[in-house]
Amino acid sequence: MNNNKSTLLSLIAVGVLSCSAAHAAVTSAEAEKLKTELTPMGGERAGNADGSIPAWTGGQKDPLPAGKLNRPPLFNADEKALLKIDSSNVEKYKDKLSDGEQALLKNIPGYTINVYPTHRTALAPEHTYERVFKNATTTKMDDRELISDWNGSIPFPIPKSGSEAMANTQFAFRGIDVQTVSSVYVVSGSAPVLATSTVAQESMPGDYPPGREDPFKGQTRYAVLVETKAPAYQAGEKILGLIDKQLNAVAQAWTYLPGQRRLRRTPNVQYDVPSPFTSGVTNYDEQNGFQGSIDRYDWKVVGKKELYVPYNNNNFLNASGLDQVLKPNSANSDLMRWELHRTWVIEGTLKAGQRHVVPKRRVYVDEDSWQILLADHWDAKGSFWKATQILTYVNPTVPGMIVATNFVYNIQSKSYAAFNVLSGEKDGYTYREIPAATFSPRSLEASGVR
């Protein structure tokens, strides 16, 4: 695709996405583009004009070397960085940097961005692509942001509004069933402080393979059970969440407290409620760039932009030793890989009459997967507040591009929180079918033994 055609696609996208939030699905002719000029997820198959972004040819399908607990080393581990961005040259490259990354480069001593050649490794199972293709002509969102005729996975591969584009980020493929053993740390200019160590089990019914029964009857985006292993005074606590497909619904959640041997409904596990997993340093909806209901914001697509984003960070996950991964001022940027990718830039402003400690936020979304890679947050005074980075890694055996460690940097307090840190030899990811009974309140209560 030549540069003019690529630009035209982006302009059409911005023009269409400024339409009303109430609309029908796309036509069959439009949907056919998902098999030709667009990727199965709605990105542009072609590379960019100068070749620095290659064409998408199906993602990373070739096997990778064996890695510990499903953390395979990356195929291009020996590549050299094309350039290094730091405080001395940030102005030169600011057009390809998010506001948050510019703030980090200017405010965090020693912070750098190492840019490597771009590899479009994102992929998902074929049955997921088939459902996304079907969604293009069936799934609809009304003016209350209620979704109907959804077939599973990404609902709007060719979005017609900012709300639809933002909805896609909440359905992004993260594997079908996965168990993650990891920790959360808070860092404020000194050694990392452990907030929690957990075992999380997640299941995404919308991506179940054909023939596997969906016990949630098409109403659940994902089910999650998190058990706390440390610190000791929280050991054995469990939180169960059933996340509705509707993006204006409060998640159903339950907490099991072993000291009381009681199961309780958890009133609110989203929006700006402080997260217990970071000892309240971050809010529930800050993990993974944005997480939860989208109904408190007016969303618009600013456009598509070529940006340096964290990508293909398999090697970061295989780093040894917490002191190597987390430094006093930031994560170890020498271990992190950045690449030039096209991103959807989606901005949310707080609706009239709604309340949230973040009245304005912006997310930068990978065009090949709908995964948020970066997120920026502003406070009530209009000052820049927080920058989020989401590291992903590719695993062809799943197959998929999987969300891994992510960081929330508080520019104002000069601190950061690190989620899903794989610091121990037993930390990592296990992909296997998880019984549906795991995600029932009755099963949670019966399993609670300290």
TrEMBL record:
Residues 40-61 are annotated as: Disordered. Transmembrane segments: none annotated. Keywords: Signal. Residues 1-24 form the signal peptide. Pfam families: DUF1329. It comes from the Bacteria. The keyword Nucleotide-binding does not apply. This is DUF1329 domain-containing protein. It comes from Zestomonas insulae.
